[in-house]
Amino acid sequence: MIRSPKVMLTALLATCLLMTGQALAQIDSGVYEIKSKHSGKLIEVGGASQDNGANINQWPANGHDTQRWLVTGTDNGYHSLINLNSGKAMEVYSSGTADGDSITQWEYWGGAAQQWQVTDRGNGYFSLGNRNSGKALDLFNFDTADGANIAQWGYWGADAQLWQMTKVGSIEGAPWDPSTTNGAANHWSLAGDIVTHDPAIAYENGTWWLFQTGPGIYGKYSSNGVDWNGAAPIFNSGLSWWGSYVPGQEGIDVWAPDLKHYNGRAWMYYSVSTFGSRVSAIGLTSASSIAAGDWRDDGLVINTTNSNDFNAIDPDLIVDKDGAPWLTFGSWNSGIKLMRVNPMTMKPYGSLYPIASRSGGIEAPTVIYRQGYYYLFVSVGVCCAGVGSTYQIRYGRATDIRGPYLDKNGTDMMNSGGSLLDGGNSVWVGPGGQDILNTDLIVRHAYDATDNGTPKMLISTLNWDSSGWPRY
After folding, report:
1. Mean pLDDT value across the chain
2. Residues acting as catalytic residues
3. Where in the chain is CATH 2.115.10.20?
């Protein structure tokens, strides 16, 4: 249907109503399907394309992630809409401002063309107004066909500009930041079962939990974070699919777990590999709670082979400032990588972002968000050689979770940057394999020079200086 001059005039006069006509919707951040009131079909990226510039159109519901959108707030009442298949953002193509300009997807860069104002128009329908153009998301020419184009047009309230937003998946709020600026150094005096390598720490209902590299992912627990007792491993036997991706892996030797709570569930990522190899896999298991111990196998997350220039080990789950999950991982080779995580499956999707690289060894990434910055902590050097280990913990920060991460001297961590947090001492050699709880506690292993280089757990308060850099 072609709009008449009268309708076009009405649209021109009503454009300003997009911003002022009714109250903004207070929609929760989360995963949404967006259905046209006029056609009853869902907005999707055409052909499930992963490409920048791919067209956004409509199609009957089919349950594919290309029809799902991660909606989070930006600023001033606007939202970004990230496609759950491609990881790219809905935008007006080339920042166009004309009626009829197409809606496409592009790598998220946060510009006004990628920001949308969601306005409640009553009866369960919403309009989506572009911040750059001031125009509304529109089913172009009222076309009801499969694959019909989604464009923008001055808002005039027609059914082609009204959308039903159905929440199909949740995300969390912003991560908790209890950290202290210029606090006193506080290294915890630990006792009990503290022999540890590659620790992952969590706190749940008054109990501290820690899991580590070892048979079946060995665990331990504490009521006070100081006195530690052994706990049952996660796996009593290996999973059948491990050998399909890592034929050389033996028994139940599992590495470098990461444990986080998200959306009311405990999630543990872990590594299956062999020493010095890129034939590796990251797996996922989850439980209703750590204490319940009802761990289920959630299968493969990502794997690498000798044809890859990176290594799928050392996973770390991150919650960004908007509550959306990401996964960082990697070891040696081309360095540390980052991917978005689907909050419905907790598996990665979209682009693979390089965030750190270093000759001579880099692995064990941990990323946290604190007061406007993302901080990347890595272990550099060589581990697993007792008192001959050269591990150190280094860090940088970025305003975008995808980087660039710069150290205190402004050197990019993609170019071997990284300021020193912990280089060890004459007793505790080769500290690394670190994990950070919230923004105020760091756990790592180090080799005890007074005990034949046995790897043991160290826990310290993570403090911050007045310039926003971490320190003990």
Report:
1. 94
2. 198, 363
3. 191-471
